[in-house]
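I am still getting used to backbone structure tokens and would like to learn alongside you. Label the sequence line and the structure token line clearly, so we can match residues to local backbone shapes. Would you write everything just below, so we can both look at the same thing?
***
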Amino acid sequence: MVDFKELQGKIKEAMDTLLQAASLRKGDIFVLGCSSSEILGEKIGSASNLEVAEHIFQIIYEETQKAEVFIAVQCCEHLNRALAVEEECARKYNLEVVNAIPHLNAGGATATTAMARLKNPVLVEKIQGHAGMDIGDTFIGMHLKPVVVPVRAPSLSIGSAHLTMARTRPKLIGGERAKYS
């Protein structure tokens, strides 16, 4: 049995930590990878659960809305890790929309939930997000900007799933005479 109140508390705490560390600006992109199976203690992709996904998505979506950043929810490998985003995000970042509909067995519970809850959802194949949260080792790194900086989570797990978080920063270019802010 999942204690959803505890689960949501951990998610909220993790989001507070990450959003503070990332210093996201209005319109930046927050990437979420989440395995509901892993949260339940099962192998990734083997026990997708919409109820778990809904509880996770609810908190993260509320926090991204407050921060005025776009959320991009990664699908599972069966949809090539495409991402569910608002159409506005796809337009702003000139992202190519692809044609697929996530469901429990191809896309996963969290992406399925995102497609149902976002205002004008579309699926895109790739993105370069500014920060992200990975619940259950879904490997969101491919969807973050090139210089990724780990952010230590207050808790290392959400349910039974391993939790990692990251922010990005601009590349440091130049040589020994360069100065950085």
Remarks:
- Helices lie at 4-22, 36-39, 50-67, 87-92, 109-117.
- The longest helix spans residues 4-22.
- DSSP finds five helices and nine strands in the chain.
